[in-house]
# Entry
Amino acid sequence: MQQSEVIDFLMRPESYGLSAKAKVQRFDTHISVVFLAGEYAYKLKRAIELPFVDFRDLSDREKYCRLELVVNKAGAPDLYIDAVPVVSTPEGLSLDGAGEVVDWLVKMHCFDQCMLFDGLAEERGLTPKDMDRLTDHVVDCYQVAEVHTDYGGREGMERAFAGHYKAFENCPPHVLEGGKLDQLRIRVTHEIEKIGDFLNDRQQAGYVRQCHGDLHLRNICFYKGMITLFDAIEFEPDYANIDVFYDFSFLLMDLCHRGEWALANTALNRYLGRTGDVAALHTLGLFLASRASIRTHVNAVASQNQEVEKDRLRWEADAQKYLDEALAYMQPKPVMILAIGGYSGSGKSTLAKKLAPEMGRQPGAFIARTDMIRKRIMGVKPEEKLNEDGYRDPVTKRTYNTLYDEIRQAINAGTCVIVDGVFAKEEERITLEKIASELDVPFFGLWLEVEPQLLKDRVALRSHDPSDADEAVVEMQLTYDVGNITWARLEADHDLKLLSEKVIELIKNKAVFSCSSPK
# Structure
């Protein structure tokens, strides 16, 4: 039986026991066809062979349907239901009955398609808080995921790009420029040579784990009010047993491609703040380039399956854009340290989040924030309030030593740094300037000044914030002897947009505000 007959059967509402007037929606990917019928979704694996998958045999389609259930029930137990057969009977095809099995489906609960994160991104319906929640969920998944030291590392990335190069050979020759593909090979070879040993170190340190493998926005949704990851890769261990930051990079790349640089920067900084894995920034360019390369060849091939010329041209243009982005991710950009100090409520974190997406390479600057580090040291979630033990001198000393170390790591990885802290002590400010001098990078310090009552009003209104500062803390800070402040002093009680524009004007000669326009 041809699989086209199964697809025709699955497009009929009567096949699911629905009224003939009911509507069955169909969604196609390069390896699957998904049918939405009533309360359920049914996923059919295409009977095809590609460089990375072979679903031609019925037994393999059954095997991978069942494996998909196992892999995805771990992260989405309420969404996935069962593997069900399509059977042939004397009366015709039937779902999950007696007869000869002719194909297999993964059965899932339906969810509102408006709750898919890719659609929400297109409608500007995703918020920084959503990114925090999503990143927290992903990090929690990584922390309990199985470690695989026999995958990943330098060889894993070499195999990944070997697969990309082979896939490029199957792309229509007129879509992708040969010269750009050659440039990609050269830059990738250079990057792997530069960080190969570091990739191996991460492999042996346990960073390679069983991950989602395909963590882009279309595989994330709100289901029953909860952030849910679905459609994790089951068919190729080399794609799923990967460095956790490589897995996370797919999300970052997808957001950047859509122009959602602020959300991408929010996700990146939440990840780094939660994990402390700032050294992973050394891999960022290579990992993002690999993820963009995947979408390059997938879209290039898919473009030729579009029946309308306008759609074909749009898919081709998108493939070309992904290739340009893959090259840009590995292009070094100027770096600097921008320190923002001031009392609690002065707007340091708000200004940092405004500036970070525009600084340096995508997805922007690393925000080294003392509040995030302190919470991580104490083993609590960022928004969980600490007791007085979290603010004793030994914890504070460890917080600042960690801060200085993370600044060095980010700068050495080629990432701009915004340092966010009170920095009421003169020696703390001097230390930051010394670190910039030691690393031979530009430094600019800002001290934000706000009227005392406005400081108190702002901290009183805070929610979903790692800072524990309240009005009493502000009162205490106002009594500090801050010493000689040599940083640029800016009034921060006015419009944030005007303030950020003034900061950019002050340091525009540093040539770092360019991330949203990759070349």
